[in-house]
Amino acid sequence: MKIGVRRIIQVIAAGVLLLLVLEAGVYNWRLVLSMRYRDLAEQNRQLSWRRDELQVERAALLNPERLQRVGTELGLAPLSLEFITVLRLYHDASGGDQYVCMEQ
Predict the structure, then answer these.
(1) Domain-by-domain residue ranges, the chain?
(2) What gap in Å lies between CA 87 and CA 100, rounded to an integer?
(3) How far apart are the C-alpha atoms of 23 and 26, rounded to whole Å?
(4) What does pTM read for this prediction?
(5) 91: Cβ–Cβ under 8 A, 6 or more apart, which residues?
(6) Which residues fall within 8 angstroms of residue 88, CB to CB, at 6 or more apart?
């Protein structure tokens, strides 16, 4: 073969090899980006849930009467004192404090 033809074949082979390496690099880069996107989407979902929980807590702290009214409508009223019975008093051995044991 002539030297010119050999050079052309070497340049074509080098170009094909370069394209294969670039394709592998692009594939790995897309894989890394998709894994990062998945992690960020999961973090976004968790933060959205936490934000919703904090908004409910904020609403309860800003307007406890509304929360009590909604709870009463749902049948979640506070326990009446008629249902609590004192069973016994006992003393703490270390300080003599009295504790009450109650039953519902």
Answers:
(1) 3-77
(2) 8
(3) 5
(4) 0.46
(5) 97, 98, 99
(6) 101
